[in-house]
Amino acid sequence: MAVLPIIKAPDPILKKRCAPVEEVNDEIRTLMDDMLETMYAAPGVGLAAPQVSVHKRVIVVDTSRGDTDRSPIRMANPEILDSSDDLAVYDEGCLSFPDQYAEVERPAKVSVRYLDYNNEVQEIEAEGLLSTCIQHEMDHLDGKLFVDHISMLKRNMILRKMSKLKKSGAVT
Ligand code: NI
To answer: Is residue 3 part of a domain?
Structure first.
């Protein structure tokens, strides 16, 4: 496994739509494992393939936040089957936006179908932080970032701050 460099916003790499995975083979399994290692090292609770410059529909999440009790979920081609009408608000962050947070409103519960590590179709129902996290990571696969859910004013503020940090070399 390897820790991969994480692309920081703003970057056109993060705005590109990702292609579906044909099957979860050894190459995709390696990508999933590397993404998990990268996410844990950051540390974070979710990571999407475009954040490590791979334009494939692959995400990893682990909202357990336990050092000893990890519960990683590796997903290829995730799709939302159903989402609740009731919404939940979380103060979201993103590994592509170090130290930037904003409140984002999303469906509180989602059911998701995906291909797992063994190329088998799985379905899960998620709520709470896991639901938010899966939706946030799935957005990345369509080039959508958490700041695209907030007001233009706030978005521009965060993006300006990120550009400055990148220019100064504080964020690479
Ligand atoms: Ni993110």
So the answer is: no
pLDDT tens digit sequence for 24-56: 999 999 999 999 999 999 999 999 999 999 999
DSSP states along 101-165? EEEEEEESEEEEEEE-TTS-EEEEEEEHHHHHHHHHHHHHHTT--GGGGS-HHHHHHHHHHHHHH
Q: Let me know if 137 is a catalytic residue.
A: yes
Rounded to the nearest angstrom, the distance between the alpha carbon of 48 and the centre of ligand 1 is 7
Question: pTM for this one?
Answer: 0.96
In a domain, 45, yes or no: yes
Q: CATH number for the domain including 149?
A: 3.90.45.10
User: For the segment 135-171, what is each residue's pLDDT rounded down to a tens digit?
Assistant: 999 999 999 999 999 999 999 999 999 999 999 998 8
